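User: quick one, sequence for these tokens?
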């Protein structure tokens, strides 16, 4: 039975590879290098962004807008395992094209997961 562990606010972080997860992680093994088309030539991390609006006037304001961020890691660095939680809107407004796009996005995420990654899905339904 798991017990709660109280950690002081300024405590040192746990050693690398030690997690207080509900499941132990297996030690990672070396993975084959990716194909050259999916790399950035072995350099540093590359970030690119694309904003929904190329510019906003000084007096203009928006409550929200979309920004697409693409990150490409160096080829010689193994990716750490990911614990991902997806909150999925399954309310009645998610029909037709919205639901199809949600399914497509979740499928893309699943395709990108590695063997050491974990995904949890939480359905959210507005009443």
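Assistant:
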């Amino acid at each position: 039975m798991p017990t709660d562990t109280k950690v002081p606010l300024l405590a040192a972080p746990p050693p690398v590879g030690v997690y207080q997860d509900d499941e132990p992680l297996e030690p990672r093994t070396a993975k084959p290098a990716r194909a050259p088309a999916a790399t950035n030539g072995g350099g540093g991390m590359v970030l690119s962004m694309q904003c929904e609006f190329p510019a906003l006037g000084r007096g203009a304001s928006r409550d929200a807008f979309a920004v697409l961020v693409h990150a490409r890691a160096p080829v010689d660095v193994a990716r750490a395992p990911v614990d991902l939680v997806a909150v999925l809107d399954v309310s009645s407004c998610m029909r037709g094209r919205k639901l199809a796009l949600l399914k497509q996005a979740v499928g893309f995420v699943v395709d990108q997961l590695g063997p050491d990654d974990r995904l949890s899905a939480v359905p959210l339904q507005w009443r």
